[in-house]
Amino acid sequence: MSIKKSIDINGFKHTLHEHESFSESEMIVKSKAYFKWLDTRRSVREYAKTPVPKEVIENIIKAASTAPSGAHKQPWTFCAISNADLKSKIREAAEIEERASYDSRMSERWLKDLAPLGTNDVKKFIEDAPWIIVVFKRAYEIEDGENINNYYVNESVGIASGMLISAIHNAGLVTLTHTPSPMKFLTKVLDRPSNERPFLLLPIGYPKEPIYVPNIERKGLEDISEFYE
Q1: pLDDT at residue 54 in the model
Q2: The pTM is what?
C-alpha cells in the first residue's frame, strides 16, 4: 500500500514527515558524541576582528528559526548588526545600564557570584565582534491595526535562542549571552516596532587568541536530573 505524501486533518493540510531512526548502540554513540561536542562550548568575552561572512549569519538565524513555538506563531525577530556606528551606539548605551547595575542595582551576593567569571561593566565585545545579533520577542502581532496575541512567547524565544547558540558553536564561532537590564535602549537604537521587546544580545565571531575562560565546572547529571523508571 502506498503512503500518501499529504492528508487533510480538520480541513488543514498535513505533510508526511520522514524521520531517520538509529539502533540503540548508534543512539548511545551519537548522543554521547553530541554532548562531548556541545560541552566544549564556552562563553567568550574577547573577540578577534576577523570578518565573518553574512551568509554564515543568515544560516545561523535560519537554524534558530526552526525552533518550536506556541501555535507556530514564531514570535521572534533576529536583528543582525555589523555596522560599526550602530555597534558603538549599542555599546555606549549598554555600558550606561551596566555601570548602574554594578554600582547599585546588583546585590552583594550577585556580585560575589559573578566574581569568578571576571565580568564587569565594560562591554568591548559589542564593538570588537564582527556581528552581534539582538533577539527580540514579539509580544503580539499587528495586523490591519489590530493587536493579535502570540502564545508562550518567552518559552518560544528562549528555545530559539538556545538553538541559535548551538548553531553558532556548530559554525566554529563563539558567543556570549548579554542581557543588560533594562534593555529598552535596544528598541530605540534599532528603531524596532512597538510589539517587539529586546530579549538577548549575542556577539558572534572568532575568539581573540590566545583566549582564556574561567576554570569552572558544569553540574553533573545527578545534580540536574531525576529519573522515574
Answers
A1: 98
A2: 0.95
